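tool_call: predict_structure(chain=1)
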Amino acid sequence: MTTPPHPSGPPEQERGPATPDVPPGPPPPGYPGAYGYGYPSYPGYPMQAPTNGFAIASLVLGILIIFWGITSILALVFGYIARKQIRERGEGGAGLAVAGIVLGWVGVGLWGIFLIFMILGFVFSGY
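tool_result:
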């Protein structure tokens, strides 16, 4: 009893070693893997715009209201720079930039109120 030939050709020991300079051809028709059976692949996720670094810095500096003056001013500067760059480059992080600007203005306002109370305290203290 003889077995029918394999659709991809004789076994390795009968046909000899493959030569490295000749690329293997496609499998013959009817071979199970010839037509790429299986599930279709899902499309990838859309590319997300990178987040602007100035927007992140603006938010972080705006959160640091403890140091009021300098961090609030830097939060404002970085926030406005970030908004300009986001419009020009189409980057992400517009919400971070706006949050940094708002927190920067809150810090500047608190700093201003603190200075007003310090000046009034100095004036009315009798020095």
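agent: Residues 53-124 form one domain. Proceeding to next step.
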